[in-house]
Known about the structure:
The chain is mainly α. It has helices at 10-19, 26-55, 57-73. It has one domain.
Amino acid sequence: MSVITFRADDEVDHALAELASGDRDRSQVIREAILAAWRARRDDQLRAEAQALAADEDDRNEARAVLGDMEALRAR
């Protein structure tokens, strides 16, 4: 586990104090914030990739062709 030091301005100090004013300590709040930011970034990247694929007409045509082939093979 690594130790990180950072300079917090007054707004961050206030927010951190408020978020840690319960059963969570400052370190836990910071860890949760980093993980939440990482997950949000990952979700944004996945969303952008899905939108790019959805907009790819060649890919959509290929998917339709595969579905058509599979439908022909379906047991009746």
